[in-house]
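stage 2 :: seqdesign
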């Protein structure tokens, strides 16, 4: 017998005993405990996973934007002795407030003791809370609106920021019910984004229903759909070399009014968001942090997950929306 032969023999005896107790002809049925905890939620969190991150400092993320000089003075053709006319662009500083996103969890002393058969209840709840926290951050990146009632402390999401820029929302249709995606409208939306010729910097975000509409449009025109690898090793489909990234936090009930997204709920349309990653990014004053809280009672332990972050619109022409898309 090997050094640990006694251990194998003991295990075999225990398994045999368990099988005997599990015999369906007896009332002594042994129920086995599956210690795998499943998180019952569907999440595709593409926006905050794909947007690039930068470290922040100070009380705000600050951007200086230059508005180009228009008219004939951008460049002059002059003679040998002519003096050029001054044509200087204008500059303006834009600030993006860092917003605090926070989630709080609790695990009771009794739960940790009673649930010991599953493992460490604290670690399992923390894992689940981290997923909930990430989903909340994704919602902010999609439809956060600091101007909305009850949402004043949120970051402004991509839909809110781009929808406020004249000319950056392309209408698939003027109908309130929306319509199917067409390649022509999607191409127009891509063309509206600064730097769209460099496909490596581009991404198209959509709900799962919205991206199915893109697939349907490509298949109807017999266009080839390729795949590519993006951040964290995910493989996604592409359109014209641009990754199609799903987000379950892009709504399918946007209210569409002729040529603009009128409300972030209450309607029957979705949208496709085309972004140049050079011009939109997440700036973190405080990266995501987990902090166990001081115990004030023996009954439970608490923790918080938090971050201080701003979603920065570096260039107002860095993103565009294809609105009025029917999700059904």
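stage 2 :: out
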């Amino acid at each position: 017998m090997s050094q640990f032969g006694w251990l194998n023999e003991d295990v075999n005896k225990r398994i045999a005993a368990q099988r005997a107790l599990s015999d369906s002809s007896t009332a002594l049925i042994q129920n086995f405990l599956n210690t795998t905890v499943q998180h019952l939620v569907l999440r595709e969190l593409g926006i905050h996973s794909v947007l690039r991150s930068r470290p922040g400092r100070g009380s705000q993320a600050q951007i200086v934007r230059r508005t180009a000089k228009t008219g004939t003075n951008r460049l002059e053709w002059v003679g040998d002795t002519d003096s050029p006319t001054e044509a200087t662009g204008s500059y303006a500083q834009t600030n993006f407030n860092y917003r605090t996103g926070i989630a709080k969890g609790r695990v009771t002393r009794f739960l940790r003791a009673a649930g010991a058969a599953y493992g460490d209840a604290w670690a399992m709840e923390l894992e689940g809370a981290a997923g909930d926290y990430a989903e909340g951050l994704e919602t902010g990146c999609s439809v956060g609106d600091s101007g909305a009632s009850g949402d004043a402390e949120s970051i402004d999401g991509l839909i809110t920021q781009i929808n406020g820029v004249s000319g950056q929302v392309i209408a698939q249709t003027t109908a309130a019910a929306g319509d199917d995606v067409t390649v022509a409208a999607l191409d127009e939306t891509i063309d509206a984004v600064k730097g769209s010729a460099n496909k490596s910097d581009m991404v198209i975000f959509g709900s799962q229903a919205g991206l199915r509409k893109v697939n349907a449009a490509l298949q109807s025109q017999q266009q080839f759909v390729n795949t590519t690898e993006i951040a964290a090793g995910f493989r996604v489909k592409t359109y014209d070399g641009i990754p199609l990234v799903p987000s379950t936090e892009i709504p399918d009930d946007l209210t569409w009014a002729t040529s603009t997204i009128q409300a972030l709920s209450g309607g029957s349309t979705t949208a496709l968001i085309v972004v140049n990653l050079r011009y939109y990014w997440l700036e973190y004053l405080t990266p995501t942090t987990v902090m166990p809280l001081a115990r004030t009672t023996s009954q439970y332990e608490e923790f918080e997950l938090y971050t201080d972050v701003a979603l920065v619109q570096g260039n107002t022409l860095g993103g565009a929306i294809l609105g009025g898309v029917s999700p059904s």
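stage 3 :: structure notes
- The mean pLDDT is 87.
- The chain has one domain: 96-325.
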